[in-house]
Specification:
The complex is a heterodimer of chains A (115) and B (116).
Chain A (H helix, E strand, L loop, with lengths): L3 E4 L2 E4 L4 E8 L5 E7 L6 E7 L2 E5 L6 E7 L2 E7 L7 E8 L10 E2 L3 E5 L1
Parallel strand pairs in A: 2-11
Antiparallel strand pairs in A: 1-3, 3-8, 4-5, 4-9, 5-6, 7-8, 9-10, 9-11
Chain B lengths: L4 E3 L2 E5 L4 E6 L6 E7 L5 E8 L4 E4 L2 E6 L4 E6 L8 E10 L7 E5 L3 E6 L1
Parallel strand pairs in B: 2-11
Antiparallel strand pairs in B: 1-3, 3-8, 4-5, 4-9, 6-7, 7-8, 9-10, 9-11
The chains are: A mainly beta (115), B mainly beta (116).
């Protein structure tokens, strides 16, 4: 199984809502990532988890809260978002190792709209 | 920022022609990767070239890397309509903090359209 799955595919939420994005992989990868992608722009790294621990937070606002409950799952909890947070949120996973010579496997993304 | 610049921003060719995309970056890297994205969906990894490699092939893809010029190119030969997509280069630094994963910084992307 070389697939990364993400749910939901689409999400519309108000600025006062609390919602969560979910990501799952069963490739045995111990590194998982969240990216944000605005229209016509490249993906921007938000968080990196290595061995279920947060290793990189790219100065993401606290209204985004990541969680890695186990080696297969990655969540992104959303609270009090702003309309400018509307974007495609991509999850990815990869093997680990100090060389960094690993490809990342991406999920199809969640299209988020904040009203 | 290490974000790469890609050119052209958009490229339109006829099926059967070759497509060349270029990527420039700013700092030292561990490797450079190319990804394809269809219609704002997930990215698909195409090829990875390490910093000590100069050229790599995979099927109809040919990638070159010139670390002295901090640039890379992706050549797609004999293009097909199915190659229509956005193509991104991504520079990789190892996640030296934990020894896990890597940190990718994506270039601005090239939108390729292959017409029948």
């Amino acid at each position: 199984d070389t697939e990364v799955t993400q749910t939901p595919k689409h999400l519309v939420m108000g600025m006062t809502n609390k919602k969560s994005l979910k990501c799952e992989q069963h490739m045995g990868h111990r590194a998982m990532y969240w990216y944000k992608q605005k229209a016509k722009k490249p993906p921007e790294l938000m968080f990196v988890y290595s061995y279920e621990k947060l290793s990189i937070n790219e100065s993401v606002p606290s209204r985004f809260s990541p969680e890695c409950p186990n080696s297969s799952l990655l969540n992104l909890h959303l609270h009090a978002l702003q309309p400018e947070d509307s974007a495609l949120y991509l999850c990815a996973s990869s093997l680990t190792g100090t060389s960094g010579n690993n490809e990342q496997f991406f999920g199809p993304g969640t299209r988020l709209t904040v009203l | 920022s290490q974000q790469g610049e890609e050119d052209p921003q958009a490229l339109s060719i006829q099926e059967g022609e070759n497509a060349t995309m270029n990527c420039s970056y700013k700092t030292s890297i561990n490797n450079l990767q190319w990804y394809r994205q269809n219609s704002g969906r997930g990215l698909v990894h195409l090829i990875l070239i390490r910093s000590n490699e100069r050229e790599k092939h995979s099927g109809r893809l040919r990638v070159t890397l010139d670390t002295s010029k901090k640039s890379s190119s992706l050549l797609i030969t004999a293009s097909r309509a199915a190659d229509t997509a956005s193509y991104f280069c991504a520079t990789a630094l190892p996640n030296i903090l934990t020894g896990g994963g890597n940190k990718l910084t994506f270039g601005t992307g090239t939108q390729l359209k292959v017409e029948l």
